[in-house]
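pipeline: protein-struct stage 2 | run 1193 | DNA primase
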Amino acid sequence: MSLPPGFLDELRSRVSISSIVGRKVTWDMRKSNQAKGDYWAPCPFHQEKSASFHVDDRKGFYYCFGCHAKGDTLNFLCETENMGFMEAVEVMAREAGMTMPARDPQAAAKADRLGELAEVMEGATRFFKTQLNSSAATAARDYLRGRGLDQKALERFEIGFAPDARQALWAHLTGAGVSPDKIIEAGLAIAPDDGGKPYDRFRGRIIFPIRDTRGRCIAFGGRAMDPNARAKYLNSPETPLFDKGRSLYNAGPARAASGKDTPLIVAEGYMDVIALVEAGFEAAVAPLGTAITEDQLRMIWRISPEPVIALDGDQAGLRAGYRLMDLALPLLGPEQSLRFCLLPEKMDPDDVLRTGGTGAMHKLIKGAVPLVKLLWQRETEGQVFDSPERRAGLDDRLRAALDKITNKSLRGHYAEDLRRLQHAFFKPQRSRQTPWFPKGRSGPGFTAPPAHALQATRATLLANGEGADIAERMREEIILAILLVHPALLEHFMSDLERAEMRTAGHETLRQALLMLPERQSDDLLQILPDPALAEATRILELGHVAIAPPVRNRNDGDLARKCLEEEFAKLFSRRGVALELREATEDLADLADEGLTWRLRQAAETRNRAERSRLSDSADLGEDRAALSGELQRLIESEVWVKRKK
């Protein structure tokens, strides 16, 4: 409906934003200045301990410096109470004592009908609560008592009982003057197709009222007392009041509790929620007998940005977690994710609380794993990756999951975590060998050292190539790996990369690919490199000496990576400069014997010495003999190798 001009301005001027927000937060009076309408509190939209949520009464706005939530009084009501805009306007109008403008006749009729149905549901709630105290409900009361629910808990959750009679509720409501069509429309009775007399939907069941975030009873859930009943749990059907895929059990109280720095727990059923709340975990909700829908997930995120999903400890619970994970992946964002609490085998939250108490549940919730860990578990658990094809299949599945994440930055972080998990998973386990002792010594478990080099040792790069070539090749690999892991440094070192022509074909292919990247390169270069360069990049990152290098291991330390790159480029260019000087000097040795050549050789030696005075610790070096080349140069100078000897 449309509102007349100035109505909202008048509404906002009559109701201060602090009076509405103050119902959901506790003001930090040390930081607030009430006289100036300046208020501070911990944010109700994300969990924090400091007061970063600011409310300005004079301007009528709120803003959180932590999660950046902002808006006016109406926005706050919509977000915290899960209201529609017009519903929030009506609430504020009642607060201000203002009369709402005349509504559209059809909308007014629909709203009036919903209000009438809600009244019918309240009448049914009172009837069911009364019946729980009847003699027919003895078994139901015993069952509830056995589940640890006292009278206070029964009252808190308005638990009732539906007699095992065909028309008990029907007779009660019609006798109170409720029209039959409303009873049927509210889902409380079923009208037979043959035109017979309607009968109660809930019979012989413990009843759990389901309320929306406004507190209206919109549906019922019923647990059968007969073990042979066709359905153990039965919910109300879809009605004008009740949309099962858009509702959560205990949503209203959970929203109020979650604003108190309490994690939101999503359990499976009514009894789980009740047990959690009674144990002190007041921010607990449950879907209504089916898998969580997208609307329910968005509703959960409006209550808490990172809820804990408590999965029953069986295969069915795990499958439900996997389905929810696939539903959530395209919707994830920096402030919107899930954690999963994996319960013990064949146990639900109620079982954990009854056997281990609140301490056991606290420990499980604290140990809840992020979504990325559950994704990795699904793709690897119980599988064998003993062939390239199987490992490639894992890569494809992980890549398909990453493609579902629409947030670019978040997708990059997920890719990084999955690569780390993959590296740890496939990293060969070091065998625990008995220590050996030097010759002439012995001890418990003495094992002599191997007489010959092991095959694994003979196959290494250091054992198979020329020393100088290996050192340069390893340095090229370190440089390329640092750039791959820290793509933000590419722009700063672009001129150095242009100079550093690689001596190995694969390295040069990768270098050229990095030079050809667009200016706004991806946070994950492996996602955008062409195939030949991608294969080389993957090979380099898997090399042992690369994986253990500090700038590669410490992916969040950009400063260390920058310093290491400066060092490695300096060493690379210095070594190549010295080699060029030596080649030119050698060509002149046969014909030249003057002070100019001596000066050039001394300069080459001094250049080498300066390059070796590293600005980094020895741990960042590749391990070559720093003094070897400079010592050889000094020997050549002192022996005057260029002087022609008499024959």
